[in-house]
Amino acid sequence: xxxxxxxFLLIFLTFTSSYGQESVLIESDSIERDKDDIITAKGNxxxxxxxxxxxxxxxxxxxxxxxxxxxxxFYIKTxxxxxxxSRGWVDVENDEGEIFDYEGVVEGKYFVRGKYLKRxxxxxxxxxxEFSSCPFDQYDWNIKASSGSLKQNDKVKTYNMxxxxxxxxxxxxxxxxxxxxxxxxxxxxxxxxxxxxxxFIYKQPVFFxxxxxxxITLTTDYRNKQGFGLSTEYRRLFDKGVYLNVQLDxxxxxxxxxxxxxxxxxxxxxxxxxxxxxxxxxFDRWQFFTKVDIPSDRYFFEDFYNFSFxxxxxxxxxxxxxxxxxxxxxxxxxxxxxxxxxxxxxxxTLQRLPEVRFYWKEKQLLNLPxxxxxxSESTYFYRQEGTSGFRFDNTLRxxxxxxxxxxxxxxxxxxxFTLYLNTKDSNTLDTRFLIPIKDTLRTTFIKSYSSFxxxxxxxxxxxxxxxxxxxxxPIYDRNDRINEKEDVDFTLYNIxxxxxxxxxxxxxxxxxxxxxxxxxxxxxxxxxxxxxxxSIFMSIKGFSVDSILYYDWQKKQIARTVSSVSIPxxxxxxxxxxxIEDNGDTSQSKQMSNSLxxxxxxxxxxxxxxxxxxxxxxxxxMFTFNxxxxxxxxxxxxxDDYNITTQRHYRNVYIVINILDVHYRLPFxxx
Length: 671
Description:
Number of helices: 2
Oligomer: single chain
Number of domains: 3
């Protein structure tokens, strides 16, 4: 951060090196040139060059030696800097100069000042230099050094450096060195805290630059209850955006930790996680993506990430995906390996090894108003224990858009042929043929008013999926059991578009099943009369409502709803509530969340409570308080997460004082 001490001189040199050009405008009360070609401008001197402005009562320019002298107080403003100095000089030809008593603002947010600043070639020297992101009259915090130097693309050296917070010296060192490049080997910002298992955690990352395209981060991880670990992350950027990230976490755990109680596995001492991400193009037009994420045990995420929602990770996915496409088709191959963290072992976990997709992109059929596309998926499903085999799924989709006066009709038919080859126990061959049909007819009425437009869209749709016997088919995933359907739905949309950005969309839908049941998602409801669907989205004067509700006429109750309302109580306080309820014949749930946010001046508060109303317990509580002084901030947070399955609370309390932001630019940014 001390490099900001010298930004003033860098900008000043850029400015003064342009004096010999015709585009420089000098205004003053008087200008004199003597026989030695020395130009002296006096009285209200204003020098302008592009977006740079220099003001002083006197400016002296030695045209022969290309030296600018400012004998009195001056003011300078550029795109990145604004400040003053008491006096100074710059030798443009030899890249040298001195400025005394400088003070200013860099990039509108960094405040610098000092007694003396000198440049010799690519090195800068300063005395009594100060730096802060707070204005000096505020004096929340600042860094001061009695002397120091900076060499471009090398490092900053300071002597007798003091860090002061609210004018109180907090830290002193007789010598301090700091890298002056974007990528430099050194210590990164440490993490100090606690979690559910440990009262003290200390993580210290160290950043190592290998070359311009690769680097390594080593992070030591000490936890007073769990033990000690080391994380290694290697990053490499190749040509054409090809990258490789490899991470290995190793942890030596203390034996018989209390977190192993009531678990159906023996405590593990040596725990690890291997993670790899990469993309590459070994063949023309082919792009491959690889990910590997395997922990040593199924409790790894719960134990080592219990301060975050990663502790609820249900599985990790490792894969190799290859993809190529032209204007006509797309081919994708996928080898996918799931590591199920919810079961004692991985023997019955379904794997796709491999999966091949071929998609013929949508085309017009001859010159007819009919469009078609084709998707073929071939998958080998594997389980160490359980059903394994091949599934070949093929879908041809034909669609037509037809206009009848003001009516638009969309017809779609998607014959689906599936072939199963069970290779686990015997070479049995099974097939399935489905004919999904969907037809939608709609029209639109538009009425314009002075402040809004009103759209009314009535719609009727028919959806049919042929009924076939699927009981003899293996079950790999949900696509192996496609529910029959004969539904008619009547829908009315009302949309209000206001010119002041207010918006209202209201959907009302009633449907009927020609069968004795229907589905909402995967939930089955035993009735011919479908639930009434009422969907509203509204945004008016800060109020917002987003609600989808299904009402079961037969049971005279809500079948399912997902609703949220946000209410601005005043300009400082906002309250929101969300409600989820599901009353299917096979599953039920009921949850409510309440959140409150308060923003006043530089104070902010947010609170969130999630309650499981069905089982009558509080699932999550989160509260954060932040005091932002602009140049530093203080945050306090509390998290209580309850897992009803393990009947364990995960509580975390943290306090963060953010005074100095330390940023290291990695060699690349992944898409």
